[in-house]
Amino acid sequence: MPNTAAETIQVGALTVRFHVDADESGGSVSIFECDVPAAARMPAPHSHDAFDETVFGLDGVITFTLGGERIDLSPGEALFIPRRVIHGFNNGGDVDARFLAVISPGSLGSGYFRDIADVLAGDGPPDVEKIGEVMRRHGLTPAPPA
């Protein structure tokens, strides 16, 4: 399979670059990189019903909340996020951060991020109902409000 240039998708303040999309791997894996600016909180807490996610810290420190526990992910560290566990992340620091995510099986692809970017591109505050619909359509379950 040819190595293609990573597609960049801007989702609000988050920048996502796909290295292996779900359709490229026949659904076995998706691999993407995320740039998380300083003082950014993303995304809405959620869980995945049918896939696991492993994240690898590349730059800066990203704080994940996984099943209610706060975990700082630094460069060179990895965090496994099992399916059906509510999680989210933020960069509360003053340095931009970056991580690599591996989704297995690769049932989440770049289409999810494009669809969310489209919802966020509208004027005014984000439409929470539309975001939830996109999330559910792509196999993510929004967490109940805290």
What does this molecule look like?
The strands form two sheets. The chain has a six-stranded antiparallel sheet, with helices on one face. A hairpin with a 2-residue loop joins strand 6 and strand 7. Helix content is 14%, strand content 45%. The protein is mainly beta and 146 residues long.
Compact description:
With 146 residues, the protein is mostly beta strands.
Number of distinct helices:
2
Radius of gyration equals 14 Å
What would the principal axes of the Cα set say about the shape? globular
Q: What structural class do the secondary elements suggest? A: mainly beta
- Total DSSP E strands: 11
Percent strand: over 45%
What is the straight-line distance between the termini? 44 Å
What do the pLDDT scores average to? 92
Order the strands across the largest sheet as they lie in space.
1-2-3-10-5-8
Low-confidence stretches: none
What profile does the largest beta sheet have? Answer: 6 strands, antiparallel
